[in-house]
Specification:
Length: 121
């Protein structure tokens, strides 16, 4: 289809923007949680801060697990031989990665709520 090239370029742009924003937010969240743990007094160093930082970092690591498939699609797109089926498969894999990321981040969010609740704040 002639629209496959346009869909490919839109998909690549979406991936790039989403990854850039997610990497920045992952770095900010992980850093703030680790700083909260490291700079708090011994009495206030609760392990839920470390576990929550770990789940945030894991949710950011989903990109590295699925990087091979994305590189293959980009290489094919640069050659100009993209078809709609390849773009659809790439989009489905991207959507699956987002669902996995949301599940891991949701678990971290729930962990932080339980941790704050356990603090009595």
């Amino acid at each position: 289809l002639p629209s496959a090239i346009t869909a490919y370029h839109t998909f690549v742009r979406l991936q790039t923007l989403a990854k850039n924003h997610l990497r920045a937010l992952t770095a900010i969240s992980t850093t703030s949680l680790l700083l909260a743990f490291g700079l708090s007094p011994l009495r206030g160093r609760h392990p839920y801060l470390l576990w929550t930082a770990l789940t945030v970092a894991l949710s950011g690591g989903v990109d590295f697990v699925l990087r091979h498939d994305e590189d293959k699609l980009r290489q094919t797109g640069e050659e100009g031989s993209v078809n709609g089926e390849m773009v659809r498969q790439g989009m489905e894999k991207f959507q699956f990665a987002q669902m996995v990321r949301a599940g891991i981040a949701g678990a971290g969010f729930l962990m932080s709520i339980v941790g704050i609740w356990g603090d009595g704040v």
